[in-house]
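Researcher: I need the complex structure. Ligand is adenosine-5'-triphosphate. Inputs:
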Amino acid sequence: MAENEATLYNARQLNLPEKEISQAATDIIKRLLDAGYKAYLVGGCIRDLLLGLHPKDFDIATDATPEQVKSVFKKKCRIIGRRFRLAHIYHNGNIYEVATFRGFDQSGDRVVHQGQILRDNIYGSIDQDVLRRDFTCNALYLDVTDLSIIDYVGGVQDIQNKRLNLIGKASDRFTEDPVRMLRCIRFSAKLGLELSEDCRNTIPKLTNSLLKVPSARLFDEIIKLFHCAKMTAAFQLMRHYKLFDQLFPLLKKPLAESDHTQEFLSNAFTNTDARLANNQSVTPVFLMACVLWPDMIEGYKKLITKDHKPYEALHIAANKTLEKQRDILSIPRAIQTGIRQIWVMQLRFKRMHGKGVYTTLHHPRFRAAYDFLLLRASVHEQLELKADFWTHIQELSPEAIRSLIFGKRARNGKMNAELV
Ligand code: ATP
Ligand code: MG
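Model: Output:
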């Protein structure tokens, strides 16, 4: 790698769509330049623009320290993070991340334990900063004043050749930060970039190291994967590299033993990808509820055979599943509550007569729980009638609903405890 030597490209000649560059991010950069600092757009936004995609956010890199950024933007700026301090700028209702160039000084606020970087707040220059970034495609800097792209690591060529190359040796870079393995899967799936041989060979050796990552950070990263709009492809990659087993050990057995589980999850991911492609909303609750369902249902079935009542069995099984998963991923309380609600609603859906039907229909989680029921029905034929009932009822007038749920035929249906 040619340290300190950059190739300069003209963004227009690379057909980077100039109009898509965020005006707000440009304004922030110009204010930093006016205050005498260096500042560039960096990372995913340039990569996405070169690939013809819409960037999800516009990140900024600067030689100003977070405190100096704060003194330029005052109340519009908040310094965040301990592991990696950076400045958030609030502008026109959005948040822009401004990160100070990182450097290599031996002394300062950097903590490394067994090769893993636990904290990195040593500042430096752009040619040092570039080397701490993960992939070559994420290490391009755009100077908004003349639209030049500064490339120290061959990122432009890698993007053109659709290659996902780490900067440096995979074993070092994944040890420094195991989350990069998940980022690797996400960028490969989302952007259609091919993993380098070094990555392909190294990931299987280091999957265990994911467990050293704080569980809250892993949860955030998993949600980014779930919502990358190409989770179907990412799921295959994660399974191939055993990263899925590492993060969701509870699924190892159900996935190995039943094609239904595999199909259920694949359908869940395909649906979410399709929702995102159609700009429909998604929530982390839904896919988490899907992923943990096979384990919960195993526990539920065992409890039912021991004569527990359905709701009681479900509560006990749900607690157990969430507790087991907690060591690896820390699922925020509110999301846990949402997951439980979706699961409990699966029992409520069994009751298709009487007043309870109204409560189910008007439950705040009805929509998500109904989608969940459809997903279950997509792999279990025996649920089709139930799914049809809850689809049909949503289209009926209040009178028709009343006669459907209080009529004689409705009463004949008896609730059983079975859940699949
Ligand atoms: P996207 O925003 O589309 O998820 P991104 O590449 O912009 O992708 P961010 O998490 O926003 O990802 O990070 C911005 C940039 O910071 C990255 O492009 C990369 O250069 C650097 N970066 C982020 N996380 C890491 C990491 N764990 N290791 C090394 N560099 C990282
Ligand atoms: Mg980004």
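Model: Summary of the prediction. The longest strand covers residues 94-100.
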